[in-house]
Write a structure and sequence with these properties.
The complex is a heterotrimer of chains A (302), B (90) and C (395).
Chain A: H1 4-10, H2 26-38, E1 42-46, H3 50-55, E2 56-57, E3 60-61, E4 67-69, H4 75-88, E5 96-102, H5 103-109, H6 111-120, E6 125-130, E7 156-157, E8 160-161, H7 170-176, E9 181-186, H8 190-201, E10 207-212, H9 216-220, H10 226-236, E11 242-245, E12 248-251, H11 260-264, H12 280-297
Chain B: E1 26-30, H1 40-44, E2 50-51, E3 59-60, H2 70-74, E4 80-84
Antiparallel strand pairs in B: 1-4, 2-3
Chain C: E1 2-8, H1 9-19, E2 24-27, H2 34-45, E3 52-55, H3 59-71, E4 76-80, H4 82-87, H5 89-97, E5 103-108, H6 122-126, E6 133-136, H7 140-155, E7 163-168, E8 176-181, H8 184-190, E9 207-208, H9 214-246, E10 254-257, E11 264-269, H10 272-285, E12 290-295, E13 297-299, H11 303-310, E14 315-320, H12 330-339, E15 347-352, H13 362-374, E16 380-381
The chains are: A alpha/beta (302), B alpha+beta (90), C alpha/beta (395).
Chain lengths: 302, 90, 395
Amino acid sequence: MLDVKERDKFADHLLASGHTACPGCGQSLAARLVVRAAGRNVIIVNSTGCLEIFTSKYLESAWEVPWIHSLFENTAAVASGVEAALKAIGRLDKVRVIAQGGDGSTFDIGFGAISGMFERGHDILYVCYDNEAYMNTGIQRSGSTPHYARTTTSPPGRVSLGNPLPKKDMPQIALAHGIPYVATASVGYPMDLDRKIRKALSIRGPKYVQIHVPCPLGWGTEPSRTLDYARLAVNTGLYPLYEVENGVTKVLRIPRRAPVEEYLKGQIRFAHLFGKEDRTKQIAQIQKVADDNIQKYGLLGK
Amino acid sequence: MKITLGTVTPPGGSRVNKTGAWRTSVKPRFLQQKCVACNLCALCCPEGCVFGTGQRTYYANEDFCKGCGICASVCPMHDIEMIPEATEDA
Amino acid sequence: MLKGKMVQGCRAIAETVSLCRPKVISAYPITPQTLIVEELASIVADGGLETEFINVEGEHSAASLVLGASATGVRVFTATSSQGLLLMGEVVFNISGMRLPVVMVNANRSISAPLNIWTDQQDSMIMRDSGWLQMYAENNQEACDLILQAYRIAEDHRIMLPVMVCVDGFVLPHAFEVVDVPSQQEVDAFLPPYKPLYRLDPDKPYTMGAFTEPDKYMETRYMMQRTMEAAIPIVEEVAREFQRAFGRASGGLFEKYRVDDASTVVIALGSMGGTLKDVVDELRGKGQKVGVLRLITYRPFPQEALYEALKGAQNVVVMEKAISVGSSSPVASELRSVFHGRPSSPKISAFVIGLGGRDVTVDDLKVAVAKGQQGLTDLDFVGLRTDLELEGVNA
């Protein structure tokens, strides 16, 4: 049992210790940073997934703020209801609403509800923790899974090279709804992430922030290198960090450019591209995705 | 123990779960020599179990530390090492 | 306020909902629920109700939205039918499991495939396992009365379970009837403001929707089951209070019409009960001792009260607008289990009638009642057409 002094130190951790995320989980760190930036005057709506499971066992909740989990695909709709209720009782100016979930919930099964929430203009920040697969159920392919990644439902084999499909561009889809703020972030750049969350919460209307979070288990990376891999994704150009506020785009210039191999080769989910067979063609295709991003978003500056 | 209507749960109950018991190989040793109190270790700990109040005061609460090693990897002064779990505390 | 005015059912229902002061309303259009929500929209647009009225992109989201609002501590309302009720099915179970006192009007409609927009009761029957209370209205007056009672029942701290008020689609919402809708004052006196037990509030944070492991889940269902049992006298209590407040008998567990000395009792839910009262009068005129017991509260299933009401009968004829394909019909099956293990049981016959909105006529009902009186029948489709070839069955 913690003594009073220790407990007081923990008091401002709005996502408490004792949660059961894997060691080195990128999503657990990102979630801590998000709720830290949001503060106590927030209601969080969370979809089913890793974050929900490792923080909300009955009587062992890690959340120090009001928090609700309903189902997998209705997070944006439940959040719309929370926001509507707050509006009806005149508390929406003081209490902020965050809807959050993983890429599976956001890109796939919850897509319709998110579109509806954006279109109706609710004052809600939607946060997507993007680890690029359905991790909680055992690493299955989602609409966010990058090309050639190994997942259990897109495994490489004698006639397969892993996921045959490109990653869905969810931030651009969010932008197409004309919402006031859309941003991508990375747990590898925590201060940038913090700034974007605070920025988003200062804006009224629907907001979308998508955070790239490595999953040591699903990606096959060292837990201690979670932030390294997150940064590499940014530095290759594979995960462009940008924000669009009322149509104006600002971009985080790549701090230290890296070729995609440097990012891919330490991850077991891409190990089949570095085996005995020559996969330079496939790696070149991934490099092209990175190059296209760099050009499209001006990630190396003018 | 009570089962509430709708399994409504009070906040912060996860702290009964001492995840420090998960460590099998390594734990962090905060050398407290070159630390400049940048606070990155505390900020980047997914467990929120790293604390410090100034230069060379940072430490990890071993009740919760899972030994992931992110603090050591993120420290710009390389002032944190991951040492074998069985090492006696200084 | 409407006193003795000829009004379309949807309008009366919408006005009654409005009087209950829900703070958040969300629904998605589906025939034959649409008119109810449209009337509510126009009431809101004219400033007749201060509420957040939200058009969503689907029923799953409509139910989810009212779930979120209810969890934030406000009174809510939604309505749907058929496919919409099925689509929101996951959320329906979520709402009851989270013990949120949502009130929904379901305009009973048939289930696809094949697509059919007309009335039967298959849709709400599918949700009988969900942990929602279910009450069925015979006419629009009762529909309005049940909505008022539903909020009282749902929000009672001894219950805290959601309530589904079922109205036969088209037959009720689209029909014109003379209805008394009370004044705001009268409703406020009967229905106090909603006081949640738990809500999402930064001043008192809770985690809602926590998961349970096998060592705790079963207890949550036990709690709901016990609450449903405890709800039976509360439903009766609220009906009595309603009568005191508004001066008419409405709601409760069931309505008995000429049952007490009947040797044959017909069981039905909803508007069909009204037609059956005419059948009963006609048969009584011919000297038959027939009665109709119109079940109003289907969930919780009032086993003891039904036993007491029916134990003296020789024949019970259950007319249902629903079927559990591969088994019998829902109410008949449950009624039979009421008599299981008792000293004696009437013969309980099961008839399926009016599926897909097929007209339920006095003649059809008389034929069915006669069949049920002759001998045990299970499962008879009343009025099945004999002029059609049915591939795989008789062709």
